[in-house]
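Let us work through a complete example step by step.
Step 1: write down the sequence.
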Amino acid sequence: RIHPMLGIGRELSIQFALAYDPMEFAAALQAIADGKIDLSPWLTGTVGVEGVPQAFADLADPEHHAKILVVPTFT
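Step 2: predict the structure and record it as tokens.
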């Protein structure tokens, strides 16, 4: 819930975005590929295909998991 008076008193600005354009997506992927963005803090687990059901169960606990990477060749 947003309380406008908290932002008004501190002269805060809020900007919302619904989506991104293809160029932004491409730039983000390139930055990841170039190693400019470290994703390791966001990846909280890695599983193979057989681990997907448990990964979904684990993601139900937001205190311990944010993103679980599925690597088909991972065992």
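Step 3: interpret the result. Strands lie at 43-47, 67-70.
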